[in-house]
Amino acid sequence: MKQPSSQLDQAYQLLTSEDDGRVCRDIPESACEHQPRNFILHILSLAATKSSDGLIDPKLILSWLLAQLGASALIIGQLVPVREAGALLPQLFTSEWIRKRPQRKWVWAAGSFVQGLCVAGMVICCFTLTDDRAGLAILILLAILAVARSFCSVSYKDVLGKTVSKSTRGTATGTAGTIASASVILFASLLTFNIIPLSIFTLSITLSIASGLWLIAAALFTQLNESSGATDGGENATRGLRDRLSLIVADKQLFRFITVRALLVSTALAPPFMLLTGTATKTNANQQSLTALTQSGTEGFLSQLGLLILASSLAGFSSSYIWGRLADKSSRNALIVSALIAGLTLASTAIIHITQPVWLTTVWLLPILLFLLMIAYQGVRLARSTHLVDMAHHTQRANYTAVSNTVIGIVLLLGGLFGVLAELFGVTLVIGLFAAMSFIAAALAVKLKNVQS
Fold this sequence. Notes:
The chain is mainly alpha-helical. The chain has a single domain (33-445), classed as MFS general substrate transporter like domains (Growth Hormone, Chain: A, Up-down Bundle). Helix content is 78%, strand content 0%. The protein is built from 20 helices and no strands. α5 (79-88) runs parallel beside α8 (131-163) and α19 packs across α20. The two termini are 39 Å apart.
């Protein structure tokens, strides 16, 4: 009967390179004996949800799907803001409620379950609705999914901090990211090489798989051995709003971290503008939005869908584990390196677009630039997540996460202004601004504390 446990220990040690499979740092003593099991459950649950995220990507997959269903540009244009801001903005108000739960794994599991149901609803919409009715229904379901995701985001970091050793948290999330990227790479490859047709039916099946993965993740997460945590401080959201926002002023490191993270939203916002540089010399895409390109239904964009998913997934697959290990050693340095990679990639794109724009229409250059940017994006995501968990005391993790994510949600909503700038002054200026933001973030990150030491 000990064989499964032994195999679990071996898998844990293989992934973490720990001599002692139960080394515990900054977690309750009761969680030490369950460390390998909790570590593997985190990887499996997170890999399932990350895979689902990739399979319903609003920026690419849902945008294409709604365009084919006949939804208007107005609705399609709301997909990314609703998904991103909707997952972040509610967190300031939900963190106190979550703190009242002694075991927060149930919050995460419920959030994952609701996300699975929402995507199942999207599949039904694909077969029963068309035009703006389909678009609006899917947008509403995406909004509900985003709110459910916000509960998962706040509760996850707290559960991670209580169940996984400090020295292996980045490895757990990084490994999950690598597994998820591999699954999305498989899907993107099937599309890119025309092994499966790009159709509404195909994407409906894809959404069904994503729905199932979210439901499986919910079931797995309930099996974590999580000790009951402190529930004090769980007050009404309105009464606690000022106190939580005051954390930004009271903690200079938190303020600097949020500033760095806000500047690095450039890595998330830049890809659509980079894509426009690849078609500007042929179609004057300097004055087009990503939604317009999506709705055009041209052969070029249809083939780009698979290639873009493939480039993004390959970047995650090849770098997530490495970023996770680097973040475990120094999340500050991981932030600096990823910010510099993003800055150099974006600056190179802007310079090439000014001096040799035709190069960006070739088959190889733009995919390489997008690949590099996605590597930086993966680094930012893993490093900021690990840094926030490790910098915060266990009694403040949920509040720090909620404050940080709410501020970033507002920043992402304001990110729509970059589209206005692109319309007025062209995509080159916007990409240049993104590059500057990345370099400034790298400079500011130097002053962050090395919270792993």
